[in-house]
Amino acid sequence: MPSFQTSPGTRDILPPQAGRWRAFSAQFADIVESAGYECIIPPMFEDLGVFLRLGDATDVVTKEMYDFEDKGGRRIALRPEHTAGICRAFAQHRPTTPWKVWYSGSNFRYEKAQAGRFRQFDQVGIEVLGSTDPLLDVEVIAMGWQFFESLGLKNVVLMVNSLGDLADRAAYIEALRQYLESRSDELSDEAKATLQRNPLRVLDSKRAQDKPVVIGAPTIAEFLSDEARAHFSTVIAGLDALKIPYTINAGLVRGLDYYQRTVFEFVSTSLDSAQTAVGGGGRYDGLVEDLGGPATPGVGFALGIDRTLLACDSEEVFNMGSPEIDAFIVDVVDGMSALRLSDELRAAGFTVDRAYDGRSMKSQMKVADRSGARVAIIIGPDEAESGNCTVRNLMTSDQSIVVQAELVTHLASIVGERNPRRNTQ
Ligand code: AMP
Fold this sequence. Notes:
Elements: H1 17-33, E1 38-39, E2 45-47, H2 48-52, H3 59-62, E3 67-69, E4 75-78, H4 83-93, E5 99-108, E6 120-129, H5 134-151, E7 156-162, H6 166-182, H7 189-197, H8 199-202, H9 211-215, H10 226-241, E8 247-248, E9 260-268, E10 277-283, H11 287-290, E11 298-304, H12 305-315, E12 327-331, H13 336-347, E13 352-354, H14 361-370, E14 375-379, H15 381-386, E15 388-393, E16 399-403, H16 407-415
Parallel strand pairs: 1-5, 7-8, 12-13, 12-14
Antiparallel strand pairs: 2-4, 3-4, 5-6, 6-11, 7-9, 9-10, 10-11, 14-15, 15-16
Helix pairs in contact: 1-5, 5-10
């Protein structure tokens, strides 16, 4: 047993899985950049006050924040999500609107670690600041939908709802509180405690005991203002126009306090754990102002990388192995030919690996086979002497003697042309 292990709720993302994560973010970037979103990299920690805006009745703020005092006496928190920090960045830098950004990075929440729930977890997401257009909500949802499609996922369900404007939401919360209090003796102890903190969250209860009460609860739809109702109708019309299937879920409230109007969640029906939400988002029209910026509407979403990849595993899509190796160099003389040739071939654009430590021919050939390389380039004393090398096609076992100076052309004839990585002229 080594002295140290990863902390609870954290993991090493090892190869080849880490490569899959990188490809995941790259594919996400490709889709959202095609719609004008640009990459943003906000800091991993901020003044705690930035995140307190997520709501003092939310678990994220009350129980899960990684906050501490730094050596300068500042109250700091590791980000539990990206949206608040991006709104703080907007308020600080005042870019022109609409400001369309995307991100990929880690968040930190002190949660009970379990399958699909970690203390350090990664998300990709987008945010748009500066427009109230309901068709922008549709574009944002469509970005998420298209990304899931591009991964090959078939079992993702989109749920949408409207939380109305602030006043609608406040009136609804009051009505909900009264209703839940009138039936509180039927609720589980956990739901009773949640009711004191945040009645909306009682609607999220997964406990069978709470179900009958939740089913009978008033819904937000009855409390929507005419403007909020019209906004939501346009969102729905836009989803229909793009043929994106959805379910209107009147109980969908989302965890954070800053949402108004449109909220949505992507749920994977392939995940059998309690954690089936692969992503979610919505409109947060008051957040920038809350953070001291100009009144600026916003809308966005975040997708959990861990959970989306779990969904990919269960649907057997977006599989990825280690990167392919074009050639493996076996040098049984002194390693100098391997050093020189691998450098030359990599510069010419090939993927090249080699053995180290002056091992025997047999042991180097074993590593070459294990690497999955398509070709082995072998340098023995004769080859080193004559300036040749033996090229062995590891798929067909064909073998030929090639002048080292012609290796690039010969390798291209077997594995295909590559674009040079460096100009070595
Ligand atoms: P949220 O910011 O809570 O709306 O989460 C958005 C998405 O991030 C969720 O749908 C999950 O896929 C993912 N997520 C949230 N919390 C965690 C966590 N603790 N561990 C892993 N993924 C998470």
